Amino acid sequence: MENIIKTTTGTYQGIADHNHTDFLGIPFGYGRRFQRAEEFSMAKFGQNEINKLQYAVHNGVQPMQDEALEQKDDKVHFGENCLNLDICTPDVDGKFPIVIEFFGGGFTKGGNFEKQMSWLDHQNVVHVTPNYRLGLFGWGVVEDGETNVGLSDQIMAVQWVFDNAASIGGDVDNVTLVGLSAGAKSVSALMASNADILDRVKKVILFSGGVQTIRDMTTAKAVVERICQTNHIKTSKDLFNLTDDGLQLAQETALKGHFATNWFGPVIDEDLISANWRDKLLQRVKKSNVKAIISAGSNELKFFEDMSVEKIKAEVLPDLFGKNVDAFCQAFLNEDYTKAELIKMLGTAMYSFPARRLAEFLTQNSDAEIFCNYARVDQGRHGGIVKYLNLPLDDLKIDYRKNRVFMTQLLSEFISTGKPYNETIKYEWPLYDDDRLVLELDPDDIKSVSVINRRYPKDLPWQSYKL
């Protein structure tokens, strides 16, 4: 099996693994403090370097995050200049569907050193996992800095994949974007952005995330101002002068004790993302005939059940929704509610409602083929469906194994053909249309159910967290 690829950013040798070839840490851009990425070029190191064989067998530099301050693992290195990607391909001489995975982690943690969707490495697809800058490094709105830096990293990675599809064994006309949580929110923002390269994407899979993290500029600036105030930093411009560790420490200090999953993310800057991003999203879906799987769990934030109601109300609700707390509580809670109902509301408002709303927005305003999933695996917890897909079959109960195989096959068919159908069980994932049918995934069953009676308010803000 060939394990050498020649790309626009250099020539690389990978390593064979499980009938696939892995290429790790391939650079696609240069990360500059609070600036959008500059495209990586071997030519900067001299003409001879372009064709020089580089070994792509070790993880590249990972995005700055709290773990960088601990340095527990000598094999993992963190830094601001972390723009590299990993590739797992069945055959560099093939023409397989391409899946670009954007990792989740609340826009504050994660990286391609620990794949969230390892199940994709065992399919007949080219699986690409790029890094992008996190937290303040990628999503902070800083004086004299540029906006949507992390989003620009992601766009550059997508461009690299299209430019090099043939070299990595991929089909340039069959590209799917997939993400979990902040990864799904990233995919949604990319599809709603003004970047023309996204017109070439045919399919998206969103696991527990959508457009709810696209923020207004006021909120984005207020988050950075809060971090500066907590650390007694005079202005956000002073953040340029901190070391990588210093900037990360300032962020860690401000976020300590908070559930800050909504504090960072894409921002409406009238450049990469416009205020009319919903119109842009619709235009792209219609123009490119984009198909989507949109998934949410039945009790996404179940892990808050160990926290007291008083603490949830005093700390978690403001962290998740800011000034939107009252609107979401009134919409999803009765006057006399239990702790279990409060926790269920958190997951509904954060994930289930945005997923359903996005699906209805697309189906009511276009002819897009949208497939929805309501996941009950892992008790419906956040990320439970991806955990379920990744588990080795031997780790599942015997009566759960066939169902896992069927679900994986449905997703693989969607990636390959856009039609999620399973011949073995004669099951076709229902379209989300006027009947509001969704695929309900239980550990031991797959069935179609209607959610037409589960109506959500229409006048709630699209942006979950607002300051």
Automatic annotation (TrEMBL):
Recorded superkingdom: Bacteria
A Pfam family reported for this protein in Swiss-Prot or TrEMBL: COesterase
Domain Carboxylesterase type B: 3-315
SUPFAM superfamilies the record matches: alpha/beta-Hydrolases (SSF53474)
Name of the molecule in the record: Carboxylesterase type B domain-containing protein
Species: Companilactobacillus suantsaicola
Lineage: Bacteria, Bacillati, Bacillota, Bacilli, Lactobacillales
